[in-house]
Input
Amino acid sequence: MIDLSQKTVFITGASSGIGLACAYAFARQDARLIIAARRKERIEALAQELNRVHDTEVLTIQLDVRNQPAVEKAVKDLPPNWKDIDVLVNNAGLSRGLDKLYEGKLEDWEEMIDTNIKGLLYVSRAVIPGMVARGRGTVINIGSIAGHEVYPGGNVYCATKFAVDALTRGLRHDLVDTPIRVCTVDPGLVETEFSVVRFRGNEQRAKTVYQNLSPLTGADVADAVLYCASRPPHVQIAEMIILPTNQASATLVHRAPPTK
Ligand code: NDP
Ligand code: 8X3
Output
């Protein structure tokens, strides 16, 4: 195993869900964290909590990954002792709606494409050259089962996650002559704020997505991310698909009503 103690880990979308759970998982390994998201107060509160509980050194960056100049500047302006990023977790992402494609809202499409594809590209473009120059680093993209199979109403969201899969594979080709590892962790149903965001704050509708099922938690996914990051340097976990036990595919979920 690689010792992650004092390694510098950059996590996008750390204000909630999987990204937040990744922050805790790496903090428990005594890593130093750069945590980024748009909601400043959330990441600052997380930084304080990690520092209090795990004595973690944390740098917070309020960042919208859709803003390319801001991404470039944030990475360029990192203080000298934070520049050497060892692990990049490209996690920031979202879905909007479940409309049929021919009835879809253009602003939803733009938001998903700009965040899930272009945001991931901007962050990767800013961070990976440093890894190549230093001759070390691990890139972990958060894809999805939706990047392997489509489902009704998933159209554009699924397309963005198929794109994440293609970009992960492409990057792995481009880095094959370097020590940099490129991984994708592709979960099924994880109960986070994901569905609340998808349904624009409709908590009731969001709850039905995970009803009568034991969904994954952010911590389950963070565990997989940590596994990828902590393999010995010659081991590259290309892809991990991680599903709740009662989910067989993007469209087949067995829901058992609670017994009385
Ligand atoms: P959450 O909604 O709980 O978290 C999403 C995170 O992404 C938040 O921290 C949010 O922060 C951040 N984010 C969204 N847009 C931007 C942006 N433009 N710039 C910076 N940060 C942004 O959902 P999850 O934790 O579930 O989602 C994390 C990743 O996991 C996503 O890529 C998602 O597609 C993927 N995924 C989720 C699954 C699930 O079932 N939940 C399953 C498979 C994959 P803020 O709003 O503060 O900017
Ligand atoms: C999130 C999982 O199945 O809701 O990527 O698309 S799913």
In short: The chain is about 40% helix and 15% strand.
